[in-house]
Design a protein that fits this description.
Structural class: alpha+beta
Shape: globular
Number of domains: 2
Order of helices and strands: HHEEEEEEEEHHEHHEEH
Number of helices: 7
CATH superfamily of the largest domain: Jelly Rolls
Radius of gyration: 18 Å
Strand content: 15-25%
Largest sheet: 4 strands, antiparallel
Distance between the termini: 33 Å
CATH class of the largest domain: Mainly Beta
CATH architecture of the largest domain: Sandwich
């Protein structure tokens, strides 16, 4: 029963998740809402867990350029921690059609055990934001792409939405450009170079990791 919900599978990584934890969590979650691709989720919308689709946290500049700060994948929560709560300069944007499980307007206090689980999820989100800072600030385009692909694959594997050697990526290269601070041309050239080097294969929206150890070395990903 628990395995049918991506947010349960995600939260289980951060602590023991028993049947009573699931019942406690369900008690303060409401119904399912849907959003279309490219729709912004209003800042005053209730906190939610993403159950289907891809979204992002983004900062948009006055001239229309944007920087993706973090991808939001199935199972991720938004609005439960300081990093993902509503902020006037940051929007939550649907990159694909979404289904979300919203929280009730008034959240009861969490039990100590479930509170630790939520704290673990928030710490993981903070760690990804730090990785994004390093990617944008110090890594080359080649390193950035390798690192992001490994991050996305790992996060999707956690909830059973990736193959051991690859995953489905439902967003266009323009989205990767906005996430990595690169031009669309640079993103395309970087993916081509990774293919030529035998690290990945891309067929449509399917990404296959051909040489994981070399990809990890390129990303400077450490155990």
């Amino acid at each position: 029963m628990l395995g049918d919900r991506s947010y349960i599978r995600r939260l289980r990584r951060y602590g023991l998740f028993r049947e009573e934890d699931w019942l406690e969590l369900e008690a303060f979650l409401a119904g399912t809402e849907t959003y279309s691709a490219n729709q912004s989720i209003e800042p005053d919308a209730p906190a939610f867990f993403l159950t289907s689709g891809w979204a992002c946290l983004a900062r948009r500049l006055s001239d229309g350029r944007r920087q993706l700060l973090s991808f939001i994948l199935p199972g991720d929560g938004v609005g439960f921690d300081l990093l993902t709560r509503a902020h006037p300069s940051v929007e939550v944007l649907a990159l694909t059609p979404l289904k979300v499980r919203q929280a009730k307007p008034a959240l009861p206090p969490l039990s100590e055990r479930l509170g630790r689980v939520f704290a673990g999820a928030a710490a993981a989100q903070q760690g990804r934001l730090l990785d994004q800072v390093v990617r944008l600030g110090r890594q080359t385009a080649y390193e950035r792409m390798a690192h992001l692909l490994l991050e996305l694959h790992g996060r999707l594997m956690e909830i059973g939405e990736a193959r051991p050697d690859g995953f489905y990526i439902p967003v266009k290269q323009e989205v990767l450009a906005d996430a990595l601070g690169l031009s669309l041309v640079h993103v395309n050239r970087t993916l081509q170079q990774l293919r030529r080097d035998g690290l990945i294969e891309v067929r449509g929206a399917q990404v296959t990791l051909l040489n994981r150890s070399a990809l990890e070395a390129a990303a400077d990903q450490r155990p």
